[in-house]
Design a protein that fits this description.
The complex is a heterodimer of chains A (486) and B (467). In chain A, 62% of the residues are buried. The longest helix of chain A is centred in the N-terminal third of the chain and has 18 residues. In chain A, 20% of the residues lie in helices and 39% in strands. Chain A is an alpha+beta fold and 486 residues long. Chain A contains 9 helices and 24 strands. Chain B is built from 10 helices and 19 strands. Chain B has 467 residues and is α+β, with helices and mostly antiparallel strands. In chain B, a hairpin with a 2-residue loop joins strand 1 and strand 2. The longest helix of chain B has 18 residues. In chain B, the strands form 4 sheets. Chain B has a 6-stranded antiparallel β-sheet with strand order 3-2-1-4-5-6. In chain B, strands 7-12-13-15-19 form a 5-stranded mixed β-barrel. Chain B has a 4-stranded antiparallel β-sheet with strand order 10-9-8-11, with no helix packed on it. Classes of the chains: A alpha+beta (486), B alpha+beta (467). The interface between A and B is large, with 91 and 100 residues. Strand 2 of chain A pairs parallel with strand 3 of chain B, so a sheet runs across the interface.
Chain lengths: 486, 467
């Protein structure tokens, strides 16, 4: 692979590129699903190719190919340079890149059990057994299970001399039970909705989830939701479960801190951000107990945003985003770092595949654990609503106004969970919401959740991001908006 | 319509979109090769999907190009059947060893599962209706052509003290499907798109077009429209949330009603996750709502065959507000005692089928007439981040974006801060007062469809944001 990389970089230089970086990627994926006791999807795929990004005449060009021959790669590199020269026809300034040292390294994400070595029969048997456990519950009308495994090899080389090989193994698994009765569809998922939990782990992730124990529990809850009370509409106290809070972090902290959005580079599609550069070190983003980091290092955990180097060859880092409630940092790359006074990229450039350009993406954007014990938090809540497991999510294109609904809610009265609530939802303005946080549970209740489906960029790229979170409490939140008819 | 600027001589390698796709003969050769190898490996039946893309996209922001990309790729996806079991393996390597390896993976996956009692034989040779959506000028558009058009659009923004961002893309793609029962289908098309967001201070607006034929739209006209609306959008004032009459431009209609498409899948009804469960044949929407799925409509794109190789049929889904028909894959059709309609996804899958070429019936109104007929209402350019809140009532939430305007006494009188909506689509399609002509609309939440602008009363905005 290194020969292909060298060939591409040499060709680009010969054609006039002042900088180039190239990635060869080999992606392997296995997908298994069941529905109502039958196997649904059963497929495996692989894709290998090369993408090269160059600077020529002070502008960017990118081309990719699956023709991994000497001629195919050279043509691709030449095309990238031609495209860069075309870009220069509509440039307004020169691209400046923060300095970075060349790295030569090889890294593999840790895993105990290679999911591609586990017999398919074993994987399917577990899914079908969980499916059967859910279908045993009367009133369930649809059962679904899924597993997804990925193995990604990437060879990165750049014209500053970096040569980095990384191998990542990613696993994901989840189950869901749906009940249709009367004029209502209710659904419960485990351990999270929209495909379950995903992490930079091997098959040990699946084995840790205890699907068979949880399958009947969520199925019973899905049926019980039909007779549960409707979540009231009010301003009140809200406790979010860790998985839902992970998505709240993703949407209302992770996206607004992407510096490409802040600078208008995503204005046409993903949107911009309320976090204009003048807000850095000034904005009181959250209450003083809130600390958020963007951490791609293995020390933070095996999340979907964990790696050793980003797709510009910058080593993984931990960046303070919110420190004691104050806004402290953005996600940047080598091109944008200097615009916020940094002399180095924060290492967040990531590409979905060999045929996509690296762009600024979240790594693991996590809320650091607080001091509360979960039982203590519930006991301390006189009147509130606990919401768990996302059902829908939406936020404006500058990341101010959001609305989320969850699959299930619980009314808390006098420090106890007293009854189930259906159709829970809440809404708010990002900074008002985060400033209302008055309790965060401790590390014992903290999980690094995986969001496997973050879409951004044109052409669209789907990326996995990590979000560590533990159950937390928020005051004076608008609750029940989604089902209000006023 | 005038084409975007053409370049008479494109330097070598300037545009991969103008590169040649494989010939149909070459696709058939690869397909035959896979079928031969699979037979020798013990597959009882085999299906081959070939997909090739050659796409380019120029992206601009802050009045300059900041990303500019090209991709070329071919994938071979192989489904084998053995002993009543089926599975799929996909690769982008087409040498014989790689194809043989993919076949072995597909067979191994298939053998790992229980027998599937619903598995049907693959379809035999079919006849397809011819459609031509491969437009040479679209394929020939070069990186320089796109850059010059972008430059002109950005210069317009600069001259007006505004900031432009967007994309200009073009490409060509083809797909072929062959199976061991003699079926072979192939289709190629081109596509092009221009999208622009113009900012003036905190105000923004947007315009976008998409077509197989790059000559069907003029990037400079789109830029001029976005420029004008961005200027109108300054000094937005805040209105209280509540129920308003809205005039939805086609992109806003598309991104809302696009969420209905899967509800018309027979499998979705069988799974009891469609909003049409227990509602077929009833007056669910207003009598002015008629919806068809029609892959052959002149404003549609896409292959004339489905993922199983069956020819796509035109299906009347909603007739004057009454859901009449669903679409069926082979398996769903057999389960329901119906005929397949050519809307199946590639097997194996758990979703069955869906109509992918929705066409809404239009009317004889227009945005201008709708505005003129409105005492008080809101003109909506586009919607954003739409998600389903209640799957049976089809309640959706989302935001307005890039241009929300107040209409008073038949005129647009100013800009308004963006709202969040929580609105049932079923209710909305009962409240449609006026329809414009159906056009090919393109947004960001749903795939392209043919839909009209709509004037809708009692549309529910629940909250307001800060801009």
């Amino acid at each position: 692979m290194w020969d292909l990389c060298t060939n591409a970089l040499d060709t680009a230089k010969l054609r006039g590129a002042s900088y180039g970086d190239v990635r060869v990627m080999h992606l392997r994926q296995r997908d298994l699903t069941t529905k109502n006791g039958q196997v649904g999807t059963l497929s495996q795929s692989e894709s290998i190719g090369l993408g090269i990004r160059v600077l020529a005449n002070g502008a960017w060009g990118f081309a990719s190919t699956d023709r991994l021959t000497r001629d195919g790669v050279a043509a691709c590199a030449a095309q990238a340079v031609s495209i860069a020269k075309a870009s220069a026809l509509a440039k307004r300034s020169e691209v400046l890149m923060a300095a970075e040292k060349a790295c030569v390294d090889s890294w593999q994400s840790p895993f105990r059990k290679d999911p591609f070595e586990i017999p398919l029969e074993t994987q399917l048997a577990l899914l079908l057994a969980a499916d059967a456990e859910m279908r045993r519950v009367k009133g369930i009308t649809l059962t679904e299970t899924d597993m997804q495994f990925r193995k990604i090899d990437s060879w990165f080389a750049s014209s500053i001399g970096s040569r980095i090989h990384q191998r990542k193994v990613i696993s994901g698994c989840g189950i869901a039970a749906t009940s249709f009765q009367g004029e209502e569809i209710q659904k419960r998922s485990y351990p999270n909705s929209f495909g379950g939990q995903h992490a930079l782990q091997g098959y040990e992730l699946v084995e840790s989830l205890d699907l068979l124990k949880n399958a009947p529990l969520i199925a019973e809850e899905a049926v019980a939701l039909h007779t549960a009370a409707q979540c009231p509409e009010k301003i009140g106290t809200l406790i979010l479960g860790g998985a839902q809070l992970g998505l709240q972090i993703h949407e209302s902290i992770g996206h607004p801190i992407e510096l490409d959005r802040v600078l208008g580079q995503e204005a046409n599609f993903a949107g911009t951000s309320f976090l204009t550069i003048d807000q850095l070190d000034q904005l009181k983003y959250a209450s003083s107990i809130v600390n958020v980091v963007a951490d791609a290092r293995l020390d933070h955990g095996q999340g979907l945003g964990t790696f050793a180097y980003d797709d510009e060859g910058v080593p993984a880092q931990c960046t303070d985003i919110i420190k004691d409630g104050k806004f402290r940092g953005y996600l940047s790359n080598r091109e944008t770092a200097h615009l916020v006074g940094l002399d180095r990229s924060s290492g967040t450039m990531r590409a979905e595949s060999w045929n996509r350009l690296p762009i600024i993406r979240m790594t693991n954007v996590s809320l650091l654990p607080g001091a509360w014990d979960y039982d203590g938090l519930i006991a301390d809540t006189h009147d509130g609503i606990l919401m768990e497991t996302n059902r829908s999510w939406s936020i404006d294109d500058r990341r101010y106004q959001f609305q989320f609904s969850t699959e299930i809610g619980w009314e808390i009265k006098g420090g106890k969970k007293v009854r189930m609530l259906k159709n829970p939802s809440y809404s708010g303005i990002t900074t008002e919401f985060w400033n209302s946080c008055d309790a965060i549970c401790k590390f014992d209740h903290w999980t690094l959740w995986g969001t496997p489906n973050c879409g951004k960029g044109q052409p669209m790229q789907t990326m996995g991001t990590g979000h560590g979170a533990s159950p937390s409490r928020f005051r004076n939140v608008r609750i029940g908006t989604a089902f209000s008819n006023q | 319509m005038k084409p975007a600027a053409k370049s008479k001589k494109a330097p070598s390698g300037a545009s991969i979109a103008s590169a040649e796709l494989l010939s149909e003969r070459e696709l058939r050769r690869i397909s035959d090769s896979v079928l031969r190898l699979a037979k020798s490996s013990g597959a009882e039946e085999t299906e081959v999907h070939l997909d090739e893309v050659a796409n380019t996209l120029t992206r601009f922001a802050n009045n300059a190009i900041h990303q500019n990309v090209a991709e070329h790729g071919l994938t071979v996806s192989i489904r084998t059947v053995a002993d009543g079991r089926t599975a799929r393996a996909t690769t982008n390597r087409i040498d014989e060893d790689s194809l043989r390896s993919a076949i072995e993976v597909a067979l191994s996956l298939a053998h790992s599962q229980p027998k599937d009692a619903r598995l049907l034989p693959m379809p035999a040779k079919q006849r397809y209706r011819s459609v031509n959506r491969f437009i040479k000028p679209t394929a020939a558009l070069s990186a320089e052509d796109r850059a010059r058009a972008v430059r002109r659009a950005c210069d317009l923004a600069v001259r007006n003290g505004q900031v432009a961002a967007g994309i200009y893309s073009n490409g060509q793609n083809q797909s072929a499907l062959g199976n061991s029962r003699g079926l072979f289908a192939a289709y190629r098309e081109t596509h092009s798109e221009f999208s622009i967001t113009v900012q003036e201070g905190p105000a923004t607006s947007w315009a976008k077009a998409n077509s197989a034929d790059v000559r069907a739209f003029d990037p400079q006209k789109l830029a001029a429209r976005a420029r004008e609306k961005a200027h109108l959008a300054v000094n937005a004032r805040e209105l209280p949330p509540g129920r308003y009459t809205v005039i939805l431009e086609p992109a806003a209609v598309l991104d809302l009603v696009g969420f209905l498409f899967y509800d018309f899948a027979a499998t979705a009804l069988e799974d009891k996750r469609s909003c049409l469960n227990d509602r077929m044949g009833k007056q669910l929407f207003g009598q002015n709502i008629t919806i068809t799925d029609d892959a052959y409509h002149p404003l549609q794109q896409g292959a004339p065959f489905d993922g199983e190789g069956l020819p796509r049929q035109k299906v009347l889904l909603v007739d004057r507000g009454i859901p009449r028909n669903l679409v069926y894959s082979c398996a769903a059709a057999k389960a329901a005692g119906k005929q397949p309609t050519g809307h199946g996804f590639a097997l194996p899958n758990e979703y069955g089928e869906a109509p992918m070429n929705l066409v809404f019936g239009g009317g004889d109104s227009s945005i201008e007439k709708m505005v003129a007929s409105t005492d008080r209402g809101l003109l909506v350019t586009r919607l954003w981040y739409i998600r389903e809140v209640d799957p049976y009532e089809k309640a959706m939430t989302g935001m307005t974006r890039d241009g929300l305007f107040l209409v008073e006494n038949g005129q647009v009188t100013g800009a308004v801060r963006n709202f969040r909506f929580n609105q049932s689509l079923i209710e909305m399609l009962n409240n449609v007062e006026l329809l414009g002509p159906a056009v090919r609309a393109t947004g960001e939440e749903a795939f392209e469809m043919v839909v009209p602008a709509m004037k809708v009363h009692n549309f529910h905005f629940s909250e307001v944001t800060k801009f």
